[in-house]
């Protein structure tokens, strides 16, 4: 959720589009909070979450896999018992698969052809197959509901003394913002 909020503040057009969708589909101050049943009405936020996961997968390297037999991957012979690492971070930023791969553009997912469920190998934030992350559904719902509720009640901006946001990453097993996210909430009327 931190990466999503950071990207939204850096891209106010996208934040406004999510808030406009909330206002159109749910209305402002019509509810105490947005709940899971509301998610089916709100489509743009799903694109925002996909784009956030493409640029900022929680685990940049998926769990290692070991080959059971001799295999060939893209012309390379891989012997049995070789440990393989999948770099989800690099896959999500590969210019062979993504136009402007370093830019935050949720609309790139509008055609619905790429998902994060392990069927699209251009994006693997949760892995794929039998060993994909069992917490995927819970994680996605948490991010979607959290973002929607933050954007339902508040506009967000950088503190006055900050002119730009540092997006440098830190970590190894998981990737976090090196500099903590600081935002100012402004109550929406």
Automatic annotation (TrEMBL):
Keywords, sorted A to Z: Heme, Iron, Membrane, Metal-binding, Monooxygenase, Oxidoreductase, Transmembrane, Transmembrane helix
Pfam families in alphabetical order: p450
One of the record's GO molecular function terms: monooxygenase activity
Residues that coordinate or bind heme: 133
Membrane topology: Single-pass membrane protein
Cofactor(s) of this protein: heme
Localization (cell): Membrane
InterPro entries on file: Cyt_P450, Cyt_P450_CS, Cyt_P450_E_grp-I, Cyt_P450_sf, Cytochrome_P450_71
A cellular-component GO term for this protein: membrane
PROSITE patterns: CYTOCHROME_P450
PANTHER family: CYTOCHROME P450 71B11-RELATED (PTHR47956), CYTOCHROME P450 71B25-RELATED (PTHR47956:SF5)
Name of protein: Cytochrome P450
Organism whose genome encodes this protein: Thlaspi arvense
Native organism taxonomy: Eukaryota, Viridiplantae, Streptophyta, Embryophyta, Tracheophyta
């Amino acid at each position: 959720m931190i990466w999503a909020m950071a990207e939204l503040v850096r891209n106010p057009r996208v934040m406004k589009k999510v808030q406009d969708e909330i206002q159109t589909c749910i209305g402002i101050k019509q509810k105490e909070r947005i709940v899971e049943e509301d998610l089916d009405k709100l489509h743009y936020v799903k694109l925002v979450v996909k784009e956030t996961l493409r640029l900022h997968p929680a685990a940049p390297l998926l769990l290692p896999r070991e080959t059971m037999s001799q295999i060939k991957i893209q012309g390379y012979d891989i012997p049995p018992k070789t440990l393989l690492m999948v770099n989800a971070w690099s896959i999500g930023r590969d210019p062979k698969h993504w136009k402007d791969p370093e830019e935050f553009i949720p609309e790139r997912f509008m055609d619905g052809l790429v998902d994060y469920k392990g069927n699209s190998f251009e994006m693997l934030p949760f892995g794929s197959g039998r060993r994909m992350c069992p917490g995927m559904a819970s994680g996605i719902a948490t991010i979607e509901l959290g973002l929607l509720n933050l954007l339902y009640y508040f506009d967000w901006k950088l503190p006055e003394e900050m002119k730009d946001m540092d997006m440098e990453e830190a970590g190894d097993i998981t990737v976090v913002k090196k500099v903590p996210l600081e935002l100012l909430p402004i109550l929406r009327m």
